[in-house]
């Protein structure tokens, strides 16, 4: 699958370069970086995300920049460079807020919470998961609510707040069952 996605994006890059479609070119480069992320080739992820970032910055395409920032955050998180991960996730949030993309605002709060969890900051993680849940509830984003409830349940369990852990785990389960 990754090979055909890669080839498709390479063809898109050729077309985007010929037609001078900078947004399309940046998106294709970003997508190739994401493919390399799936292959755990961090050097290539950074290379392609850097190229996409440069293009998006040159044309002030903020949503593209936010996507790159989120992807860079993921790369740094998986590389255990947590300060850099948090930095990039936090860069993405105000861009998504400005664009009124609540799903991605919530997703970045989940990412921050997961990063803080890996740093054993249970309270910080919990606060970010609660924020993500509030965002998901504000516009009925089921996927975000399931992720946030599961994450809250996990942190509450770590804190030995078993009643809250069960409440949130059941909420996640019921949402998932109702939306299959």
CA radius of gyration: 18 Å
Low-confidence stretches: none
Structural shape: elongated
Number of strands: 0
Q: Largest sheet, described in full? A: none
Helix content: over 70%
Mean pLDDT: 94
**Can you count the helices?**
9
Strand content: under 5%
| First-residue to last-residue Cα separation | 25 Å
- Strand-and-helix sequence, N→C? HHHHHHHHH
Helix-strand category? mainly alpha
Written overview of the protein:
The protein is mainly α and 180 residues long. 86% of the residues lie in helices and 0% in strands. The chain has nine helices and no strands. It has helices at 2-19, 22-38, 42-58, 62-78, 82-98, 102-118, 122-138, 142-158, 162-178. α5 runs antiparallel to α6 (102-118), α6 (102-118) packs parallel to α8 and α8 runs antiparallel to α9. The radius of gyration is 18 Å and the shape is elongated. The model has no long low-confidence stretch (mean pLDDT 94).
Provide a brief overview of the structure.
It contains 9 helices and no strands.
Tags for this model:
mainly alpha; 180 residues
């Amino acid at each position: 699958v990754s090979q055909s996605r890669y080839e498709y994006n390479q063809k898109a890059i050729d077309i985007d370069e010929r037609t001078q479609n900078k947004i399309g070119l940046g998106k294709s480069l970003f997508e190739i970086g994401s493919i390399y992320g799936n292959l755990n080739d961090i050097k290539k992820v950074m290379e392609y995300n850097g190229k996409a970032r440069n293009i998006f910055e040159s044309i002030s395409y903020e949503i593209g920049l936010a996507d790159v920032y989120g992807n860079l955050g993921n790369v740094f998180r998986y590389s255990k460079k947590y300060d850099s991960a948090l930095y990039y996730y936090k860069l993405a949030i105000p861009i998504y807020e400005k664009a009124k993309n609540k799903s991605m605002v919530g997703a970045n709060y989940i990412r921050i919470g997961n990063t803080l969890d890996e740093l054993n900051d249970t309270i910080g993680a919990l606060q970010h998961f609660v924020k993500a849940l509030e965002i998901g509830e504000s516009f009925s984003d089921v996927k975000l609510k399931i992720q946030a409830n599961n994450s809250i349940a996990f942190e509450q369990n770590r804190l030995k707040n078993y009643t809250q852990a069960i409440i949130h785990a059941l909420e996640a389960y019921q949402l998932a069952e109702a939306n299959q």
